[in-house]
Amino acid sequence: SARAAGPLSVRWAGAALNDDAYGRLRMEQELRHAIAAGELELHYQPQIELASGKPLGAEALARWRHPTRGMIPPDRFIPVAEECGLVEALGRFVLETAARQAAAWAGLGFRLRIAVNVSAIQLRNPAFAETALAILREADCDPSLIELEITESAAMADADHAARQLAPLRAQGVRIAIDDFGTGYSNLASLTQLPFDVIKIDRGFVRDALEHPNARMVVAAVLGLAGNLGVETVAEGVETEEQRAFVAAHGCTYGQGYLFSRPVPAESLLAWRRNQLVAELRRMAGAAGGR
Ligand code: C2E
Ligand code: MG
Ligand code: MG
Ligand code: MG
Predict the structure, then answer these.
(1) From the alpha carbon of 149, which atom of ligand 1 is closest?
(2) DSSP code of 197?
(3) Which helix (H) or strand (E) covers residue 215, if one does?
(4) Residue 93's CB: how many other CB atoms inside 10 A?
(5) How far apart, in Å, do the first and last CA atoms of the chain sit?
(6) Spacing, Cα 262 to ligand 1 middle (Å)
(7) Over the stretch 122-154, which tens digit does the pLDDT of each residue have?
(8) Is 55 in the pocket of ligand 1 (CB under 6 A)?
(9) How many CB atoms lie within 10 A of CB 52?
(10) Bridge-partner residues for 49, per DSSP?
(11) Whole-angstrom Cα distance, residue 162 to residue 73?
C-alpha cells in the first residue's frame, strides 16, 4: 500500500522532490550508490545526415535503471548530481562508456560518432580537457569519434575559460557542439569566439517551426548563421516528416528525433543499423536483378 511504501518514497517520486531536503538527501545517497553499482546506463539516439539519410552519429543519453523505482530520466537526477558533487563521477562514467562503445563499434566497421553531454560544472573544472583526453586514451577511442555537447549557457557563462578548455580537445579531433541553441540569449558576437563545430537547434524551435512564424524565423536564421560560420547543424526533436523537410530545405546537416528513432540501448542501435543495411542490400540486389 501507499502507506507501507512510506511517505519518503512518495515524496521522492513526486514533483516536490527538489523542495524536499529529506527526499533529496535520500536520492543523493541512492545516486552515489547507483554510480558505483552500475545502475546507470547510456541509451543512444541516432543523428541522421539529412542529405543522405545515413546515421553518422548518435547522442548518448544517461538513464538510471533503479532496482525498485524503474527507469529514471536524466532531467531528474543530473541536477541532483550537479548539486551534490557527483557530476564528476557521473561525467567520467558517461564519457568512458561512450568512448568504449564508439571504439567497439568502430572495430566492427560501424564508425559512428558519439555525442556526449557535458555539464556546466564539469566544464568549469580547469582539468576538464586533460581529464577527457586521458579517458579517451584509456578507452582506445579515436578522438574524432567523440563530440562533446556544451549547452549554450554553460559555454557563455565564462566564454574565455570555455575557449581555453575546448581548444586542446578540438586540436586532438574531438568535435564540439553547442547544445540547446537559441535558449540561452547568447551574444552572437561572443559565441563566434568559441571554437566549435556544430550547433544543435533546440527542440522547442523545431517543434514550433511549422506553426509559429517566430520559431520559423529563429530556425531559418540559425541555419543561415551556421552556414555563414561554416559549422554543421543538428535539428533536435524532429518528430514529423514536415519538420524534417523544413529543416532540410533550410540547409540543416543532421536530424535527431523520434521520427528517426527514440534513444535506444547500444545493442538495439546496432540491430537497427544492421536491418537498415540488409534492407539497402536487398534493394540493390532487387534493382540489379530487374535490369
Ligand atoms: P539534451 O541534451 O537536449 O537531449 C535531448 C533530449 O531530447 C533527450 O531527452 C531526448 O530523449 C529528447 N528527444 C530527442 N528526440 C525527441 C523527440 O523527437 N521528441 C521529444 N519529445 N523528445 C526528444 P533525455 O534523454 O530525457 O535527456 C534530457 C536532458 O538531460 C538532455 O537534454 C541533457 O541536457 C541531459 N542529459 C542526458 N544525459 C546526460 C549526461 O550523460 N550528462 C549530462 N550532463 N546531461 C545529460
Ligand atoms: Mg544534448
Ligand atoms: Mg539538446
Ligand atoms: Mg534539450
Answers:
(1) 2
(2) S
(3) helix 213-229
(4) 19
(5) 68
(6) 11
(7) 999 999 999 999 999 999 999 999 999 999 889
(8) no
(9) 8
(10) 54, 254
(11) 27
CB of 263 within 6 A of ligand 1: the answer is yes
Site of grid cell 581529464: 131
What is the 8-class DSSP label of residue 119? -
Q: From the CB of residue 242, how many other CB atoms can be counted at a distance below 10 Å?
A: 12
| Least confident among 21-25, 231-235, 248-252 | 21-25
| Cα distance between residue 76 and residue 28, in whole Å | 11
Q: Are strands 232-235 and 40-49 parallel, antiparallel or unpaired?
A: unpaired
Nearest residue (by CA) to ligand 1, atom 12, is: 237
Strands (E) located in the chain = 40-49, 54-66, 70-72, 113-118, 146-151, 175-181, 198-201, 232-235, 254-255
- Identity of the residue numbered 121: I
**Number of helices and strands in the chain (H, E):** 13, 9
147 backbone φψ class: left, alpha, beta (φ>0; ψ -120 to 50)? beta
Q: What is the ipTM of this complex?
A: 0.98
pTM of the model: 0.92
Ligand 1: atom nearest CA of 61 is: 38
